Amino acid sequence: MVVPGVLAGERVDRAVALLTGWSRADVQVLLARAAIVIDGRAVNKSHKLVEGSVIEVLEEPAVGAPPEPDPTVAIDVRYADDDVIVVAKPDGLVVHPGAGHADGTLVNGLLARFPDVAAIGDPYRPGIVHRLDRDTSGLLVVARSPRAYDSLIEQISTRSVDRSYVALVWGTLSSPRGVIDAPIGRSTARRTRMAVRESGKTARTEYEVRTTYVDPECSLLDCRLETGRTHQIRVHLSAIGHPVVGDATYGGSRVSITLGRPFLHATHLAFDHPVTGERLAFDDALPAALAAVLTNLE
User: Fold this and answer.
1) pLDDT tens digits, 89-113
2) Cβ burial, residue 202 (10 Å; 0-12/13-18/19+)
């Protein structure tokens, strides 16, 4: 939507509510999720509009009831106490309900096993403080108490949560280690994808080469997130010319290695316990399908 002169100077939350008919509360939730951007940039709810600016709305407010428990969704719990739950998510499992995935998500399974999670955080994605892409497997921490929710959100924002991944990428990198520092935002060509954009949010990914392979030419990397943008590792590695093997969305699907998912696994997770302050650390081995790819390369 292009901002008309009559709305110049208005707060973005009020203006979008007027233009869409949604409640200001719903609009503010979308703003907090960076699902409403002005001229390609995420803004806060009090941002004042300028005539001619372009408002992009990337999501709609949640509709219907909050998610229901579903005991048929298997949950691999690695740790649980009164405040936090650590799970190992398989590939193919969506973390929380959203467009196209109303049920059958990790959240539905969590609610069946830990009903108290329903009261934590956003009622439509209860307990969730960070996410993994549907086809990315590995470790995820979930809040089980309000104090844990607040603490984990703070730890993520201050980058004290350690999230490390293993990725197999195409090609041989020019340096054995490095940092990819490039802002990420919605792709202007395809709104379901992300891209490196000057107007995007700050994003930093550290990487270190663990092993290189010759036939086909590819490299096994350890990656660490300093920030947590949607599709961050996949977008960053594709941007430097080394897309993740099996990642059809960002140019990593090739016939020399047939894999129906990106070779990306959240292998290490560490954070400070929200109550005791103890540093908790967890590691998860590669799933069998990914380990088999490496065996064939050797």
Assistant:
1) 999 999 988 766 778 999 999 999 9
2) exposed
At position 110, the amino acid (one-letter code) is L
Quick: pLDDT tens for 225-276.
Answer: 988 888 999 999 999 999 999 999 999 999 999 899 999 999 999 999 999 9
Please report which helix (H) or strand (E) contains residue 27, including its range: helix 24-32
pLDDT average, residue stretch 265-292: 97
- Cβ atoms 70, 104 nearer than 8 A: yes
The amino acid at 275: V
- Please state, in angstroms and rounded to a whole number, the distance separating the CA atoms of residues 77 and 98: 23
CA distances, 137 to each of 33, 55, 71, 121, 266 (Å): 23, 34, 20, 23, 6
296 CB burial (10 A radius; 0-12, 13-18, 19+): exposed
Question: Does the N-terminal peptide bond of residue 216 adopt cis geometry, omega within 30 degrees of 0?
Answer: yes
pLDDT in tens, 146-202: 999 999 999 998 999 999 999 999 999 999 999 999 999 888 777 678 899 888 889
Cα 108-110-115 angle, rounded to 5 deg: 100
Contacts with 167 (C-beta within 8 Å, 6 or more apart), sequence order: 207, 220, 221, 223, 233, 237, 244, 262, 263, 264, 265
Which of 13, 83, 133, 247 is flagged as catalytic? 133
Stated as kind and residue range, the H or E segment containing 16 is: helix 12-20
Tell me the pTM.
0.79
Active site residue 91: no
Q: How many CB atoms lie within 10 A of CB 290?
A: 22
Classify residue 26 by burial, with Cβ atoms within 10 Å: 0-12, 13-18, 19+: middle
Report residue 15: phi and psi, to 5°. Answer: -65, -45
